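ok here's the first one, seq then struct tokens
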Amino acid sequence: MSLSFRRASLASLGLVFGLSALSLSPLMAQETKPAQDATSPAAAPVDPNAVVATVNGEKLTEADLQLAEGELSQQFAQMPPEQRRAAALSAAIEIRVMAKKAVDSGLDKDADFQRRMAFLQARALHGEVVEKEVVDKVTDAEVRARYDQEIANTPPVNEIHARHILVKTKEEAEAIIKQLDGGADFQKLANDHTSDPSGKTSGGDLGWFGPGQMVPEFDKAAFALDVGKYSKEPVQSQFGWHVIKVEDKRAKQPPAFDDVKDQAKQAVIRDKYFAMVKELRAAAKVEIPDEKLKKDIDTLEAGK
């Protein structure tokens, strides 16, 4: 079961998790790192300043290598773990020698390159602010409070345990209803007549489900029935004609905190991020000469 948080501008939130990939990659690496075997010795601490190679007299350190591994992790995903360190070092050396050639050729002075570098630096700084001033400052208490708030704001709903018999025609469904009116057993009829493959051995059992999980016609008819009752008229959907029986109803239980705490944390991060952006945008002097573009920006910002 998942907790459904209200969705503010996910496109804008993409700035946090898309443009700031540099800042979040260490976090993701930490979350997905496999647990160390208790029987194996702990890895020796690595000196980030230890030199692993020199390229044209320029040092490449452990910190540089770890950065390369993190930034190029997708390229190394299919590679055996024991080869990734060597591959990262090879890539780092390749980048350095090609970068030197670019500088020697004067490409670093190119106006388009400098614009890209300025943007990349701003993007990296954006990521640093998100990580240091937003992500790292989220507390367990804030995450729990957000979960409690969402649970309190979620209207209580019922879920039902139902069975159905699915047939191709209305006439077939009406004939089954007549048999039920005469005292026939619903589960036996389902096993004998339903065209739903999963229902042929389970008496048409659909298990528990909540509002909106079934097609609208089925959903409306099923939730209108009382416990122990079956539909007196065939219910048509895109799949055919249904005869529905409700076995039980219960209040839908909210998800446990541990099951959705990551979602709750992302919601806290999102809110803190937007609050910071709103404050900084209000204090910034932003001028957009193009009136149409300005109007489009205002519309976009109003939807966040």
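and now the second one, same deal
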Amino acid sequence: MNPHPNPAAPQRIAARVSIVGEDTPVARALPHRQRRMIGAWCFLDHAGPVQFRPGQGLHVGAHPHIGLQTFTWLIEGAVTHRDSLGHEQVIYPGQVNLMTAGRGIAHTEDSVQDGARLHAAQLWIALPDAERQREPAFQNYPELPVIDQGGWRVTVLAGGLLGRSSPATVYTPLVGLDLASRGAADVTLPLEPTFEYGAMVLRGSASVGGEAITTGELLYFAPGRAELRLQCDAEAQILLLGGEPFGQPVLLWWNFVGRTQDDMAGALADWQASPNQGGRFGTVRPGSAAGALTPPVLEKLKVPSAS
């Protein structure tokens, strides 16, 4: 039973689509001027699907992070992660890479083989104040809980559903689900009424909460719902994110999540002083085909209102 008989209508957000590199389409749904966060989820890029040309692939040079967790959900392809803690890990379809930046870490990402396909969701999770300065860490999760319901194959990426819990370590109440179907499917999933939720179609089209949605769109649902119906008539894939409202404004600039201008300026200065050469962010083990990234100019940032 829904605790709110007339829950607020969902908010429809059009992702900003751009081409990265030569031919990789990336749809950025978060942050957006209409909705900056969903729980602690503060960044959502839907990359691909793309078939790289011969000699082309994903190659992201060394770059730093603070105050967040990077959460990579791979659907197609194979990508090598290298970081300044010494990890070198290939992520394959159906797996999650979770890197906790804490006080500071650097990493690179490279296609294992050029000329292959790539399809992924790249997310960031803002760390709460008590965890923002924690030691950095990295974990690959090769096996995640899977639930078959109503024609959907539901992978529990983060948090829990129907008694199954993801092994991914997170620091605020949240959930992440991938729903994939090879044909018509229809399921009503239980929700945590105190959470806000967002649904984004990664392949095909679907109906979520009675609203038609296709690729390139995000539907936001405010707290107050106890269930959500997800339907499709043909092959489709949906990413469903949720979490307890973060309750505190955060700043996102370049690859940093912080609270103040000083957070960003300090991290920028530390990276510029020794880009991938030790210091606060360490040195990423060699192997990437790309050089260290150069940050943009840091201008005066406006602290957003909490959402």
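notes on #2: The helical segments are 261-273. The CA atoms of residues 268 and 297 lie 9 Å apart.
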